[in-house]
Design goal:
Elements: E1 8-13, H1 22-28, H2 32-52, E2 56-61, E3 64-69, H3 77-94
Antiparallel strand pairs: 1-3, 2-3
Length: 98
């Protein structure tokens, strides 16, 4: 069993950027398949980013993606925080609603 001295939980709300918002997107789109595809593509990208930064994907809840830094291996809290920050920065690049 791994005991983590320092861990951070990150929650990504898939709401797009520039004020567009996921809720507005889903209300404006009549194609449920497109909504599901957008979320699936974003979550698959987040999975890849998690692997890149050695973060632990915890779960997806609706349009939220939850992962943890400092959970896979015990590491200095500053390293875990840096991994989490880099993950968040990369997620901002991924989130873009059509």
């Amino acid at each position: 069993m791994l005991v983590c001295c320092s861990a951070s939980i990150l929650i990504v709300l898939c709401g797009g950027h520039r004020g567009s918002g996921y809720t507005k997107f889903t209300n404006d789109v009549n194609d449920l398949g497109l909504v599901v595809k957008v979320l699936e593509d974003q979550f698959n990208s987040f999975d890849s980013v998690c692997k890149d930064y050695e973060l632990l994907k915890i779960q997806t809840v609706g349009d939220c993606y939850v992962c943890g830094a400092g959970c896979i291996k015990d590491e200095d809290e500053h390293i875990a925080l840096l991994r989490g920050t880099l993950f968040a920065w990369r997620c901002l690049q991924v989130i873009a609603l059509p």
